[in-house]
Amino acid sequence: MIDYYVALSDGLKSSLIITLFLMISTAILGLRVKRLKTADVPGGMTLVAIMFVQFVNDFMRDFFTKHWKIFTPYLMTILLFLLFANTASLAGLTAPLSNINVALGFSALAFGSIQIAALVIHKPVKRMKGLMEPYALFLPINLIGEMSTPFAMGLRLFGNLLSGSIIGIIVYGLTSWGGIVFGAFLLHPVFDIFFGAIQAYVYFMLFTIFLSMAIEE
Amino acid sequence: MGNLFLLAAEYNEFFAQGLALLGAGIAVLTGIGPGIGQGYAAGKAVEALGRQPEAEGSIRTLMITGQAVAETTGLYGLIVSIILIFAS
Question: Predicted confidence band at B2 (pLDDT cuts at 50, 70, 90)?
C-alpha cells in the first residue's frame, strides 16, 4: 500500500490527497446539512456549502431544460475537485493538473460521459442521425469534432497549470529572499488563485455546454 | 540540402538540439494571437460598459470566460515549445 503510494508521481499523489480531503469534508458537511431543522439558520462552512449548491443549481437550470437533476451532482463534483486541485499549490502540494496524465484523464472523462449520456438519452439510431447532420458526408468532420473538443478542454487545463508551476520554479530558483516576497504577493494570487479558479470555472462551463448540446433537442 | 540535414542530425546531436530550441522559440510566437484576441475582448467589454454601466458584473464574467477560452491557442504553442525543450 505504502509502496504503491510512494512510487506515484507528485501530481497523482496530490490528486489522491485532495480526493481524500474532499471525501471527508463533504461527508461532514452533508451530515451537518441533514441535521438542520427547517427553522435553523445555517452558519459558517455549512452556509458556504449550501450557497455553492444553490449557485450550481441555478447555473444548470439555464442550460438544461429537462435533465438537469441527473447531471447537476456529477458536474458539481467535477467543479469542486477542480477548484481544490488548481489551488493545491497554496497548500504545498503539486497541482494535479500539471501532470499530463491527470489532464488527459479529464479529457477522457468529458468524452466518455458526453458520449454515454447522448447514447442513453437519445437512442443509438437517433444519435447516429444527429452525427450525420446536415448531410451524411459530414460524418467524419462531426466525429473529429466530438473527439477534439474534450481533448482541447483537458489540454487547456494542463497548459495553464504547467505554465504557472514553471514560472514559479523559475522565480524561486533565480531569486533568494526577494522571490518569497514576489511569490507571496504576485505569483500565488495570480497564477494559483485567479487563473486556477477561472480555468476550473471554464472547464465546468464548457463541459455543461457540450453536455447540454449533446443531450437536449 | 535534405541529405545534408540528415547527415548533420546523425553525426551532430547538438545540431538537432539547437533546431529543437529554435522550433520552441518559433512555437511560442502563437502568443501573438491570444494577445490580439484578449485585447479586442477587453476593448469591446469597455465599450459595452460605457453603453450600459449597470451590467458591469455580467460583462466582467463574460469577458473573463471569453478571454480564458481565447487563451487556448497560445497555450497549445506553449505546450509544443515545452515538449520541444524538455522531451527532445
Answer: low
- Please tell me the distance from the alpha carbon of residue A17 to that of residue A85, in angstroms, as a whole number: 10
Straight-line distance from the first to the last Cα atom of chain B, in angstroms, rounded to the nearest whole number: 23
| Contact of A118 with A214, CB cutoff 8 Å | yes
Please, which residues 24-83 of chain B have a Cβ atom closer than 8 Å to chain A? Answer: 64-65, 68-69, 71-72, 75-76, 78-79, 82
Residue A142, burial from CB neighbour count under 10 angstroms (0-12, 13-18, 19+): middle
Residues of chain A in contact with residue B78, where contact means CB-CB under 8 angstroms, are 159, 162-163
Q: Which residues of A touch B82 (CB under 8 A)?
A: 162, 166
Query: At how many degrees (to 10) do helices B72-86 and A139-174 cross?
Result: 60
Cβ of A207: how many Cβ atoms within 10 Å?
Answer: 24
Q: Which is nearest to A202 in space by CA: A162, A160, A164?
A: A160
The confidence score (pLDDT) of residue A108 equals 94
CB contact under 8 Å between B75 and A160, yes or no, is: yes
- Nearest residue in chain B measured CA to CA from A206: B69
pLDDT, mean of residues A128-142: 84
